[in-house]
């Protein structure tokens, strides 16, 4: 015979509810300085890489291609009908979400959004026919960097920002799994929308 049904506590976004005294089932934030430093390094590397890519596209920094060149490239990849708006959304999204990762703010949601861009990039490169090498050593325009950044974003979806972040103490940091799954589902849904609705 099964026991009584237990409801899962999703908490709230602000993280301002009382802690274990009234919510003993809520997991405490891991108190490991080494983990916090490791997550900070990962956030800085992944977030800064995305933010730099977005800034280069938007403002042409460091010889960046600009939105017109990115739009032309997207059109060549099958996004002709939406190439212009998609180039702007991609650039702004990379910049804003990358900065959020660096700050450690809304981390699972920002990371999921950036993961969506890399899922789309890898799928476009390999489906239906591989059009780019996997490894950088095998040629230009490889997807190795996309895979690594996507993996870093995916890790942050589940691991969170750590305590050296603006997210410190928020509910989705203290109860990460349900929020990570929700963020991941939304991110994958966005990637599928881009691939199957905007690509014609």
From TrEMBL:
Basic and acidic residues biased stretches: 16-25
Q: Does Membrane show up as a keyword for this record?
A: yes
Subcellular location(s): the record lists: Cell membrane
UniProt cross-references to Pfam families, sorted A to Z: DoxX
Note down the stretches annotated as region Disordered: 1-25
Instruction: Identify its membrane topology class.
Output: Multi-pass membrane protein
Q: Does the keyword Membrane apply?
A: yes
InterPro entries given in the database record? DoxX, DoxX-like_oxidoreductase
- Indicate the family of this protein: Belongs to the DoxX family.
- Protein name as it appears in the record: DoxX family membrane protein
């Amino acid at each position: 015979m099964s026991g009584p049904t237990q409801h899962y506590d999703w908490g709230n976004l602000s993280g301002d509810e009382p802690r274990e005294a009234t919510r003993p089932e809520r997991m405490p934030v891991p108190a490991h300085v080494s983990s916090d430093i490791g997550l900070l390094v990962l956030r800085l590397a992944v977030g800064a890489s995305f933010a730099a890519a977005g800034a280069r596209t938007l403002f042409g920094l460091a010889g960046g291609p600009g939105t017109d060149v990115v739009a032309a490239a997207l059109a060549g990849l099958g996004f002709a009908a939406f190439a212009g708006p998609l180039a702007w959304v991609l650039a702004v999204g990379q910049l804003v979400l990358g900065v959020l990762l660096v700050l450690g703010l809304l981390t699972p949601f920002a990371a999921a959004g950036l993961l969506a861009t890399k899922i789309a990039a890898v799928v476009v490169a390999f489906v239906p026919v591989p059009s780019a090498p996997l490894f950088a050593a095998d040629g230009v325009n490889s997807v190795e960097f996309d895979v690594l950044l996507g993996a870093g974003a995916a890790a942050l979806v589940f691991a969170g920002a750590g305590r050296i972040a603006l997210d410190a103490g928020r509910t989705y940091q203290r109860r990460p799994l349900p929020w990570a799954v929700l963020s991941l589902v939304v991110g994958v849904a966005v990637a599928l929308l881009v691939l199957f609705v905007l690509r014609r």
